[in-house]
Amino acid sequence: MNGELFPTSAFVWASTRKDALAQLDAFIPAAGRYGRDRNHVFPGHRNVSRLSPAIRHRLILESECAEAPLRRYAASTVEKFTQEVYWRRYWKSWLSLRPQVWSDYLDQLAALQNGPHAEATLTRAARCEAGESSVAIMNHFARELVETGYLHNHARMWFAGWWIHIERLPWQLGADFFLRHLLDGDPASNTLSWRWVAGLQTPGKTYLPRRSNLEKYLPPEMLEMHHEGLEQLEQPRVLILPAEERPAITRPSLPPTPSLGKGRVGIWIHEEDLLVEQSPLASLKPVAILATGDAATWTSLRYPKTKTAWLRNALTDAANRAGSALGVEAQVQADSTTIEALPHWATEHQLQQVAAMRPEIGPLHDQLRELQSALTKVGVELVLFDCPEDLALRPLATGGFLGFWEKMQKSPFAEDL
Question: Count of domains in the chain?
Answer without folding.
Answer: 3
